[in-house]
Amino acid sequence: MPPIAHGQDDLNRLNKHVIQSVVSVNTYDNVKYGINFTTGFIIFSERSRSLICVHKSVIKKKKGLFVHFSDGTIEKAAVFLEETSTGHTILVTESKRGHARTAVSFCERVVEREELFIITEVEGGYNGFNFMTGTVNTPSCKAIDRALKEIVPGSESKFALSCPAREQILGAGVFNLEGLLIGTVSSFDEDAFNLKFAQQTCHWVDELEAKLKAKDAKISLSKKGRKTKPGPRVTKKRRVEDRNDIKMLREEGPLVNLSQAT
């Protein structure tokens, strides 16, 4: 992994703060003792419950969801919001702790070339979380499909990152060195130089909050950072830029990642 331009003491403080919001979700299928696991994070918490964000694959053909928190406690989970347009599933746990847990703070600005870290469970059975550092390699993975002459749906909201990748990391939170959630790991391609991709939170946090509020008006998500407007709303200027991109594509050839063309 690339070096991080911060001292170990700073990284230790970040880890101590953010790990309180990170969880490991163990799932059991129909085979006794059969187990799978993934990494998630707390997005909202109050005295009696916590909402956990995970990748949608965690609930496929599974029964029995158990959330392992960083303080060593385990709580049974149920599905609160089955699936969103970005592939996230929200779980809910009931708590008897008497006080709220620490939730993540979503970054509202567009991702830049910057350093990042991921705290994730990589062994299963709650053997401890791993702190992994990396960088944002490509802030925008905007690409155009030459055959359709259209921008690949969702490509603009993704960024490429340098970090180890396994199936269990899908859905894990990606944090900047301010401790803000800048994205979630969404996919990786072992056949293409092991590229890893994440979805920028600023593109979907407002939609997620609206869906949650529709189920319970008391729910709110913590958001920080410079406010930007990266969402799907298309302006006249943007349409002109996209047409220019497509024109360039016709002249240059195959599927292009526009961010790599600069």
From TrEMBL:
Top-level taxon in the UniProt lineage: Eukaryota
Residue ranges, annotated region (Disordered): 221-246
Record field: compositional bias (Basic residues): 221-238
Protein name: Uncharacterized protein
Organism (species): Urochloa decumbens
Top-level taxonomy: Eukaryota, Viridiplantae, Streptophyta, Embryophyta, Tracheophyta
